Amino acid sequence: MKLHDLTLSGNCYKVRLLAALAGIELELVPVDFMGGAHKRAPHTDLNPWGELPVLEDGDVVLRDSQAILVYLGARYAGEQWLPRDPLGLATVMQWLSTAANEIQHGPGAARLVDKFGYVLDKADALRRAERILGLLEQHLAHNDWLALQHPTIADCAVFPYVALSHEGGMSLADYPQVRAWIDRVKALPGFVGMPGV
User: Fold this and answer.
1) CATH number of the domain at 2-77, out of 3.40.50.1980, 3.40.1180.10, 3.30.300.30, 3.40.30.10?
2) Measured between alpha carbons, how far apart are the two ends of the chain, in Å?
3) Architecture of the domain whose range is 86-186
């Protein structure tokens, strides 16, 4: 199984993190992002969107980190990481949507501005980051994990860009529950980091 990967991408890291925690073997295929390799063949033959990550598992080719987490969770990681019951599954999916929306457009976007020079509305990204970090703080004041009473793919989806908030100019000093959750994730057996985490 191959993951077309960029070391500094939080979205790629989500997949690497789940694979490490669940004991799923991945062959990492580095993509020359700065050289634009993700925007031309052969990468666009796999993913016409020209984005990372991309997972190849035999004949299966998937784009989008949340979709890849669902696939790996359902096919390889087991119900601990992606429950089958309707309520458990829906509870996890709520957080995947949060990762793709509030997290991506808040701390994720602020990081794109500061670390990679993207031309985005930094003030808006910081407002969004402050809102979602406040909501996470409230949730984690009563829960050790995001979706259930144990780690799931929800934690893998949300973790990277929250843990990397400082790279977008967002301090976690006022969010002790969020920091404690980050420490819990880092303490999981098999945890792997990435630059900045």
Assistant:
1) 3.40.30.10
2) 25
3) Up-down Bundle (1.20)
